[in-house]
Model the fold of this input.
Amino acid sequence: MINKTLPAWDLSDLYNGIEDERIAVDLEKYRLFCMDFSNRYKGHLSELDGEEMASLLKTYEQNSEIGSRIGGFAYLNMVTQMKNQAAVAFYQNISEKLTDYSKPLIFLSLEINRLPMEKIENWLQNPQAAFYKPWLERVRRFKPYELAEAVEEVLLEKSMTSSSAWVRLYEETSSKLQYTVDGKSYNDAEISKLLLDKNAETCRKAGAEINRVAKENADLFTFIYNMVIKDKAIEDEKRGFRLPMSSRNMSENVSDQMVETLTAAVRDNYKNIAHRFYKLKAKWLGVDKISYWDRNAPLPFADDAEYGWADTVSLVLEAYKSFSPELYEIAKDFFDNAWIDVPPRDGKRSGAFCAPVSSGSHPYLLLNFAGKRNDVLTLAHELGHGCHHQTRIKNGELNEYSRMTTEEVASVFGEMITFQSMVAKLPDGPEKLALIASKVGDMINTAIRQIAFHCFESRAHAERKNGELSKERLCEIWQEEMAASLGEAVELGEDSRFIWSQVGHFFFLPFYVYAYSFADCLVNSLYQVSREGKIENFPAKYMQMLSKTAITDYGELLAPFGLNPNDPTFWNEGLSLISGYIDELERLSAKLPSL
Done:
């Protein structure tokens, strides 16, 4: 049975609740610093030598950590109680104040980018200033897309009433949605678990209910999405970005061409991976076609075992330790301390995530643990994020930033080593086939489906240039992209038309989704190398790579493993791991004809 008492995080190492007097003290400290910093340095950067610039950046970094801690606490406090108006209002109030107080700092990156490169190089001759080279390089990268300081200030101020406001409305509305199946009420996190039920009728009812609620709210979500796209397009046009995804790619430090190459490689593999897998799954389920909502349903012969929290923790930590004792020691801290919020509950945000507060503080993990096998792999995934963050603390607040394409590497790798540990314990048989099939389904959701999401986004943003998109048109684009990726063995039906509105990343992080596929293919390639055993001290090299993901480019990161992400075959090598698992499923299926 699942443990009745599941651990929750303790945020008191940040603040003792929203009434904590230290919050006001830190806010005032943050505000005064921003004003004093601007008064002291604005218009004078060209006069600074390397030592003075190093001192400037050190104090700027320390202030950034204060802002990150306040903002991080406000967000974490809210996401477990999104029906608590005081918590929601506190988060909004803090967000607005941090945005307002930070306005005087806008000059810094703009002024740096007005300086000649010779001045930057002169600064970097100082060892203390050279520590911040990754941050300075990132600032310089955005030089062609920056606007005048007055315009940047307006955009910062307006973000709270434009993009951020729309996202807030979307998230608050989504968190309050209620679903009813067979007379029982469910929140978002709870009903998603019904989609993993062995009973096909339960899955169908849950899926139909999710679509019904999405359809019921489609007018509002369509309007919000149109506004999010338009708001982004206005800023992109002013800054001069070539494509709607270009600003995201710039943040990731990947080229538009690299993402287009990834997209093309995945689309070319739709048939060999997703189409082939769902045809197998239809056979195992004894139907000609599976419904859209049966894609992730367990197979009828799958193990029904539930996992208690203690057993789940033990299983994941064992897998981490077998790969790297160093990784295990980092992971163990999350369970020895109250850094994880585990149970699903009313008003809590659905899904799972790892939230870093600042580079100098430990992160927090949010789960909605229900004791399913998928929850084991979810813990392994989010724990990977947490360990990744802990390897990078020494890099500092300024140098560290969330490059999503590498943020997902440690999480997917953690999930992979846990999965392999589980498979290794099983003989050929129905349970092994079901476990591999479950993993392949997850990998398809990551590597294949996220590119289908990316294609939906790309088309929606492109068509929005001609005017607002109707909910009917968004549904059409969604169905077309889903059909292309899933193949003829999956029946989409009317009960999946409005599911685009349930993909939160479309709203709060446009063009984020390809990062999942990017990371999955990258990790698959890394794992293939690990399995081959050709790289000496692979675990140590892997840990070293994690510590540098935000401060090193992809070529240098992957060179120790003999991998080149600029080689078009790189993506196909990653995808071949998935197709290899499908080969194994076909072998097991032929060996077990009674299934």
Summary: The mean pLDDT is 92. The CA atoms of residues 157 and 307 lie 47 Å apart.
